[in-house]
Amino acid sequence: MESLEQIKIRAEAAVPGAALTLVPNPGPAAQDSLVLDHDHAVAVATFLRDDPELRLDYCSNVTGVDWLERVEKTKIKVTREVDGEQKEVEETREESIPGYLESVYHLYSIEKKHGPVVIRLRTTGREKLATVPSLTPVWRGAEFQEREIHDLYGIDFTGHPDQRRLLMWEEFEDYPMRRDYVAPDDYEYEPTPHDAVLERAAENRDQRPDKDGCESIF
Q: What is the pTM of this model?
């Protein structure tokens, strides 16, 4: 199978206006990935599925990722005057990265027997129901997995044929897989504050004020 860089170049040529970003993976797996822009994501996904050289006809899994706001440090070489001489020194630069959510798709070709190719869709922030386009119209097997991500991370998949909560009940208001999620002190089936509920309330007291900005009474 051709390299991810080659796939990127051909996909951008096949879908005018598409902008793909190659994300290197420095870990042992070295499984690099492509971030698709929202406006052309479905068209690029269709290209990946239908291109005769790629035929990425199988979406094996779709996962969600929650990235909190963070500071990334990188080391760069710069020239500075040191003891009256120009010398190359190493400096650390810090960059503030806003938080966002991702859906990550692992693609294989049953026909060509190759893969995976990893593609990503990113939201612009971590607000409630931040949006990305659904790729279920391209790979029908993504339907339940996008519903699970919607349910647990709060990503709104525009164009999904049946976006309902999958694991949590419809009245549930939060997203349990978000990294800043705090479990409630009490549940519908625990109307009386017993010992375990009181212990949770004590743990959460400093993390979550109530709706009026006051601490829990428990």
A: 0.79
Q: Is beta strand 70-82 parallel, antiparallel or unpaired with respect to 114-122?
A: unpaired
Specify the domain boundaries for CATH 3.30.460.80 within the chain.
4-67+100-180
Q: Looking at residue 216, what is its pLDDT? A: 39
CA angle 165, 178, 19 (to 5 degrees): 90
Query: For every residue of 81-102, which 3-state class applies, written as one string?
Result: EECCEEEEEEEEEEEEECCEEE
The two three-digit tokens of residue 163, written as one number: 């976006």
The CATH class of 4-67+100-180 is alpha beta
The pair of structure tokens assigned to 178 is 């978000």
> Looking at the chain, which runs of residues are DSSP E strands?
20-23, 33-36, 58-67, 70-82, 85-97, 100-109, 114-122, 130-133, 155-158
Using 70 as the pLDDT threshold, list the residues of the chain that sit under it: 185-194, 197, 201, 204-218
